[in-house]
Write a structure and sequence with these properties.
There is one protein chain. By secondary structure, the chain is mainly beta. Among the domains are: 1-140, Immunoglobulin-like (Sandwich); 144-291, Immunoglobulin-like (Sandwich), CATH 2.60.40.3880. It has six helices and 24 strands. Strands 10, 11, 12, 13, 15 and 18 form a six-stranded antiparallel beta sheet that branches. Helix 1 packs parallel to helix 3. It is elongated, with a radius of gyration of 28 Å. It starts with 12 loop residues before the first strand and ends with a helix.
Length: 457
């Protein structure tokens, strides 16, 4: 049995709006994230409903006071890894507001194992007013050698690029406000979600991973579906999203995140249940009418910066009119629609859900970045990167890196273009940045004296 491990306990609270009046004393949820090869980082979320407590006046203020207890007992050894209690005392600013909950967070590092979890809250001013929740927590480390997903954390609000690093809910540049009630509806019309992807580089996939987010109602009908692609440029990655649930009827729902590597026929799944309270919406078993083709594509979840980066990398296939049109766009939704249409009309298989042209093009961008980066210049901006992106991999390459009478140069042969063409690249500066000095391809630069330019004599 491992010794007790407690990383940190955070006992700050904040107020958030809730979808409907809730007389339960408190609510509880948790999510696990990667820590190391033997443990996970586990966040326990709780919310206290001020109107379920006895409110006591002191001087000019009013207060609620509760005792929160949390225990985690190893089911194999019957030993406690966590067994603590905290007093939570809060002032009440508006005792007439039924929509206020106080939300808190406890953070622990917990080793691999199966645990009996008991969390309880007792009203200090009325000891009979108590609620106890029994749960089961299974910890299986995410930091392993294969592709993996963290738990899904549902949230009432996510702030991207948050500057408030002291916030209780700050992590990985995001401020993620938990919703322990797991209830959305009239006053919370958007369900935000946060999760983390691990071990992408260990997956050794040269292409894209397919990320599929879908939601089913209690009858198994899909009411929301969004598919996107992510690359393997970094080992781990944070993913956030939002689902408009204003048209979802009252019901229990299951969100699933599936990360798929189609090349290896391998995938991982994470899921989360939640509840929607929308009494005015009728039950209709169809996909949400708010979901458009753009929202269901990879472009529908791109940030403003991601849109700009994608179009910058598309410069080799964009015409002048398209470049001028994109420069005039300032709204991120307009950019998403533009990119969706831009790549759709270039897709030779427009009837399929997957844009093969976009996938192939971005795979070439990735390859160019990996092979031809030069100092601060991304690989796709170099001459060799541009040629690779535009024309694909050459039929063969002749390399001359150590000639005594010339600077280093390469000759790329394309046997299937215009009956056979070549591209000549030379390292004119001596810093590994091979520039295009000549080509026999129509429309490319041509210099019959290029060999004299690279001569060192």
């Amino acid at each position: 049995m491992k010794s007790k491990i407690l990383l940190i306990v955070i006992l700050s609270l904040s107020s958030i709006g809730f979808a409907q009046e809730n007389k339960s004393l408190f609510d509880f949820d948790y999510a696990q994230f990667a820590y190391d090869s033997t443990s996970n980082y586990v966040e326990f979320y709780y919310s206290l409903n001020q109107h379920a407590f006895t409110i006591k006046p002191f001087d000019t203020a009013k207060y609620i006071d509760g005792i929160l207890k949390l225990s985690l007992e190893d089911t194999m050894s019957n030993k406690y890894i966590v067994n603590k209690e905290w007093e939570i005392k809060r002032s009440i600013n508006d005792s007439t507001d039924n929509s206020k909950n106080f939300v808190g967070l406890l953070d622990f590092v917990i080793p691999k194992g199966d645990y009996k979890c008991i969390i309880s809250v007792t009203d200090v001013y009325n000891k009979k007013n108590e609620k106890i929740i029994n749960d089961f927590v299974r910890v299986r480390p995410f930091a392993v050698d294969s592709l993996s997903l963290s738990d899904i954390q549902l949230s009432s609000k996510i702030v991207e690029n948050s500057s408030d690093k002291n916030s209780l809910f700050y992590k990985n540049t995001f401020e993620v406000t938990p919703i322990p009630t797991l209830v959305f509806g009239e006053n919370l019309p958007v369900a935000y979600y946060y999760f983390e992807v691990y071990n992408k580089l260990k997956n050794n996939n040269d292409g894209f991973l397919k990320l599929d987010c879908f939601i089913k109602n209690s009858r198994g009908k899909i009411v929301f579906n969004k598919v996107s692609l992510i690359t393997n440029k970094v080992e781990s990655q944070v993913q956030v999203g939002a689902v408009p649930i204003i048209k979802f009827p009252t019901d229990t729902y299951l969100m699933k995140i599936a990360l798929l590597d189609s090349a290896k026929n391998f995938g991982v799944v994470s899921s989360k249940r939640f509840f929607v309270y929308n009494p005015g919406i009728k039950i209709v078993d169809t996909i949400s009418s708010q979901q458009s083709s753009v929202l269901g594509s990879i472009f529908g979840v791109m940030s403003n910066e991601e849109c700009d980066n994608i179009f910058a990398e598309a410069i080799y296939v964009a015409n002048n009119t398209e470049i001028d049109q994109y420069k005039k766009l300032t709204d991120v939704d307009a950019k998403r629609h533009f990119l969706y249409d831009f790549w759709k009309k270039r897709n030779p298989k427009s009837a399929t859900s997957q844009n093969e042209y976009f996938t192939e093009y971005m795979a070439r961008v990735k390859e160019a970045d990996q092979k031809y980066r030069s100092f601060k210049t991304p690989g796709w901006k170099t001459d060799r990167g541009r040629v690779l992106i535009m024309y694909g991999a050459p039929s063969e390459i002749d390399r001359y890196p150590n000639q005594t009478d010339t600077k280093p140069y390469e000759v790329w042969h394309y046997n299937d273009i215009e009956g056979g063409v070549v591209f000549d690249f030379a390292d004119l500066t001596g810093f590994g940045d091979y520039q295009l000095v000549n080509s026999t391809k129509r429309g490319e630069m041509s210099d019959d004296n290029w060999q004299q330019r690279i001569s060192t004599n």
